[in-house]
Design a protein that fits this description.
The protein is an alpha+beta fold. Helix content is 38%, strand content 19%. It is built from 15 helices and 13 strands. The protein is elongated and about 90 Å long.
Length: 453
């Protein structure tokens, strides 16, 4: 049997939580001490709060006087309502809370039925009860009760890097599932933003939201986790990060963002996405082909149906990447344009490797030779295994026979199957081209070094 103890300040909140289970026919009251229970079973939370306050001082120094305890027997322990009540009362007696006002609830919202206890940790004189080594004493008591009543020994689930992650199962312990999933995702995956973190969590029906505000003049910034269905709708009471563990806190997760920056390599993911996009015919085909290669594409739409977010979840490298990290051609805007107009599909274009850039002829050639040289260069670009870039089908043909040079000379002419049949005009200068590409390569290298600093 596992006991979980939460110490808080809101008596009304603890009573409301349990009353909601009763209203949903997922729980019922088993008994109480010093609290008047209505004979018809209709619980009035306001009157119940007054019952508790009758045994609490009007003024007290204890800021967190409420104890909310759950007792969770092993699923194979088949207990009656009377058995549950005996266990709960004996547990409270041994813990030193047997004379306190309390109310016992039985929850049946999951297959493993369990007990919730709401009580207070101050007496009528306003003195706080002994809470020294509270959790250690609780563990000793549950062990004694297991031995006394022949219950199964409590065995906490062990988490390892190889533990499989699955979607939330409504018939199981939702909090435990959310807790384990968040922990495993943090252990395995690399992501740099809350959106990327949510992209991987959404595969397992979990959503994380930031919470910001002020309490007693002090600002707080935290996270709240929601269990959802396949439509993204919340299906259970949200869990504060503090209820799951330090690993789920905003500080811990934002620390993961920072550490991932030096670990993420986008090239393996981009290589696959480029290949899949080149042979896909629309959104559904693209998503299916990506999944076959071990990549999930998470798309987010606004209420008007416009795509505003696209994230690639690569199970091969356990990396989560917003589309814009791979390149603007993979951003939500670019994908939205393609999905709505097939003619705007990005087309794969191979970028020449450095070796090919430096292999351009150094001696002037005749006009005919230059044309052949340009043709061969295009052909080599098509077959190159260097990094890739994109061009859209909507690009128009050149207006002049002389190639235009910009800050991206290497990508100014689309390379498509069959383009080697056309010749570059007489204005083509191989030596100048090689020099331009080398200068551009050095500029990019300098910019990358600057970003690292």
């Amino acid at each position: 049997m596992v006991a979980k103890i939460s110490i808080g300040s809101s008596l009304y909140g603890a009573l409301t939580y349990n009353s909601e289970k009763i209203n949903e026919a997922k729980g019922r009251v088993l008994g109480a001490n010093k609290i008047v229970l209505p004979p018809d079973g209709n619980i009035n939370i306001g009157k119940m709060v007054e019952n508790f306050k009758a045994f609490m001082p009007k003024m007290g120094k204890t800021k967190k006087p409420v104890l909310h305890i759950s007792l969770n027997p092993h699923p194979e322990d088949k207990l009656t309502d009377q058995d549950f009540e005996i266990l709960a009362r004996e547990y409270l007696d041994k813990l030193g809370f047997g004379e306190q006002p309390y109310i016992l609830y039985k929850h049946e919202d999951i297959d493993r039925h369990h007990i919730h206890i709401v009580t207070v940790n101050v007496n009528e004189q306003g003195k706080r009860l002994n809470q020294d080594f509270l959790y250690r004493r609780s563990k000793k008591i549950t062990t004694e009760l297991e031995e006394k009543y022949g219950l199964h020994k409590a065995q906490r689930e062990k988490i390892s890097p190889d533990t499989p992650i699955t979607k939330i199962d409504l018939s199981g312990d939702i909090k435990r599932q959310v807790q384990n999933t968040v922990k495993l995702v943090g252990m395995r995956w690399k992501f740099q933003t809350l959106g990327e973190f949510n992209a991987i969590l959404s595969l397992y029906n979990i959503r994380c939201e930031p919470t910001d505000g002020k309490v007693n003049g002090r600002e707080y910034h935290g996270y709240v986790y929601h269990a959802t269905n396949d439509k993204g709708e919340t299906i259970a009471t949200p869990f504060k990060a503090s209820r799951l563990g330090k690993f789920a806190s905003r500080t811990a997760v934002e620390g993961m963002f920072e550490r991932a920056k030096d670990k993420i390599d986008i090239k393996p993911t981009k290589r696959i996405v480029v290949d899949v996009m080149a042979r896909s015919n629309g959104k559904e085909d693209f998503i299916t082909n990506l999944k076959e290669k071990g990549i999930d594409l998470i798309l987010r739409y606004n209420p008007d149906g416009r795509l505003y977010g696209a994230t690639f979840v690569d199970h091969n490298t356990q990396t989560v990447l917003n589309g814009s990290r791979l390149g603007k051609e993979f951003s939500a805007n670019a994908l939205n344009t393609w999905f709505n107009d097939p003619a705007q599909k990005p087309i794969v274009q191979q970028q020449p490797s450095q070796g090919q850039q430096q292999s351009a002829p150094t001696q002037p050639q005749s006009s005919h030779s230059q044309s052949n040289s340009g043709s061969q260069g295009d052909s080599q670009q098509t077959s190159s295994q260097g990094s890739t870039q994109f061009s859209t089908q909507s690009q128009t043909s050149q207006k002049s026979s002389t190639p235009r040079h910009s800050n991206n000379d290497d990508y100014s002419q689309p390379t498509l199957p069959g383009l080697e049949l056309f010749h570059v005009g007489s204005g083509y200068d191989p030596e100048q081209e090689a020099m331009n590409r080398e200068m551009e390569r050095r500029k990019r290298k300098k910019r990358r070094k600057g970003r690292r600093l």
